[in-house]
């Protein structure tokens, strides 16, 4: 019987695809997974070639020999698939010489039993060649060891497939595409072998003759599907070029070399891993920290909630160190959270710096005010009126500077009276204060039609804007006007003056919140405005105008609306 053209296409197409994939994978060494994948596809190629030659070998003794030689393919393929899956899914710690030796025991025993089968018939109780036209099939009765090997092979295939599926579910799209193609690569011959092993096979016409299908093993010829899927993984999903292990190794390397300590805790609050920095901070061996309750290492851990931070104090040989703890959930499972990651960040230097600045600020502010008051008092005893006035002016400016520094502290530290105040009350209070302080300046105001309340730092912000507008106004008829209105959930306040305008170096404080050594503001007033508005959650804008003077607009969130207020 002549073998059909379909048979030739199937056989040689399978050999070509499997061999090509073997060579391509081999060239990718030593990338993770390349060597075992090449071994797997090489075993598949061997299986296909020996099966194809055997089909056309009509001599009984040679046909039985080729049937035996086919076994090198299934002996290598399942262990190679599992090793590949372990490397590909970043479980390379399980791949060792001992593991490879253990995986090779059953295949080696199987090959030995195959070579000595006539003495014990454990693998096959009988094998006979049946000719069907131009092809020859082996009719084999399977012995007990055959089923031992099938069980072993299927277990390895299932284990590797499980890891790849797990990766496909948890990875991003590129790795999902790779994993899907790899599953097709291994599942196609697996399904074919399962069909053969159970003596159930759909009607397949390999030739023009109706075959006794229970004698035909389609497994090796399913590698044409495996080859196509593998080539798709290489060409479409960058298989072996971009493998998941690369990103995991990168993440592991980053964690291992971090300056922050990292502790991984399971859902029972037991430490399951930590990086070297965490072990150093806690002054213990890395292995000693694992499997201990995290509370034994961090006593205040139970008080820490996800998203919160807590500062702890640890006594070390180099002195007391302060660390900031934070917690992040690893994710959720059906039964709850999978665990937590606790990060430990050393904030000792920052804490000391803040303390130093706080002490420096308080000492300077206190001493500045006291010394300037002394200077101001002694100036009264001098005879030169002009010099006295100059000294007192400068001394008072320094006292005012200290007062502003203290006011900034109160705003930023949220000290003092934090009760809200209405916009109208702020306007009345600060406008009246400006009128008393600068009697030569006309200060007008227009209260909002509908009132609302804001946080009290608004008063300090408005006070400094009024002071800045009045103090630097050198017009013959200096004027300052404050207009306020409520627009939805915002209070909009504009301070307008007819003065010379704010210098460029001063504007940078409000616009970019920056100073340079060559361009800096002359005081703290506009800094107080900038920081105060930021504390209120609002914005401050310098409104450009073609006419002289300055318009500064404040937009501040309101807390709640109040009764309408009067207009002045």
TrEMBL record:
Keywords: ATP-binding, Kinase, Membrane, Nucleotide-binding, Transferase, Transmembrane, Transmembrane helix
Top-level enzyme category: transferase
Transmembrane segments: 6-26, 38-58, 64-86, 98-116, 145-169
InterPro entries from the UniProt entry: 2C_sensor_his_kinase, HATPase_C_sf, HATPase_dom, His_kinase_dom, HisKA_7TM, PAS, PAS-like_dom_sf, Sig_transdc_His_kin-like_C
GO molecular function: ATP binding; protein histidine kinase activity
Catalysed conversion reaction: ATP + protein L-histidine = ADP + protein N-phospho-L-histidine
UniProt EC number: 2.7.13.3
Every Histidine kinase domain range: 363-560
Identification of the protein by name: histidine kinase
Organism: Halorientalis regularis
